[in-house]
Amino acid sequence: MRYSVRDVKTYYEIHGTGTPLVMIHRWGVDHRLMKGCMEPLFQSAHEKWQRIYFDLPGMGRTEGRPWIDGSGRMLDIISVFIEGIIPNQNFLLVGQSDGGYLSRGMDKKRFFRILGLLLICPLAPWMPAILGYTI
């Protein structure tokens, strides 16, 4: 499926029903990384989790745009995407590597709607300064 944020048509998939889990992958891959590692966990679970997998801009089936020039813009896109897909709902975030870093940024921005974070090999707190971006 597709959801537009400004001129970015974000590709996403939804599996299951229940409490939303928004999965944020790392740089250089796409939603399949998170889907591949997370879906086996839900095979025996009773359908109480709605899993939302999406491709970050410039990765997978979501095109990048020149105006997306840092993690702040990426957080804006993620924020609008989540609000459009699951408006006014509480949710959990699952982030891997840089996706964990973005999850922490989302937690800082929208702490009142985030029920919890699962961080898989999250980007270390000192890494963003070395890599040249901050949240």
Fold and architecture overview:
With 135 residues, the chain is α/β, with parallel strands linked by helices. The protein has a single domain (2-131), classed as Rossmann fold. The protein has 4 helices and 6 strands. The protein has helices at residues 31-42, 71-85, 98-110, 127-131; strands at 2-5, 8-15, 19-24, 49-54, 91-96, 114-120. A 6-stranded mixed beta sheet has the order 1-2-4-3-5-6, with helices on both faces. Helix 2 (71-85) packs across helix 3.
Total of domains: 1
Separate helix tally: 4
User: What is the top-level CATH class?
Assistant: Alpha Beta
Whole-angstrom Rg: 14 Å
Determine the CATH topology. Rossmann fold
Outline: globular
CATH superfamily: Alpha/Beta hydrolase fold, catalytic domain
The profile of the biggest β sheet is: 6 strands, mixed
Short structural description:
By secondary structure, the protein is an alpha/beta fold. It is built from four helices and six strands, in the order E-E-E-H-E-H-E-H-E-H. A six-stranded mixed sheet has the order 1-2-4-3-5-6, sandwiched between helices.
Descriptors:
Rossmann fold; alpha/beta; six-stranded mixed β-sheet
List the helices and strands and how they pair.
Blueprint: E1 2-5, E2 8-15, E3 19-24, H1 31-42, E4 49-54, H2 71-85, E5 91-96, H3 98-110, E6 114-120, H4 127-131
Parallel strand pairs: 3-4, 3-5, 5-6
Antiparallel strand pairs: 1-2, 2-4
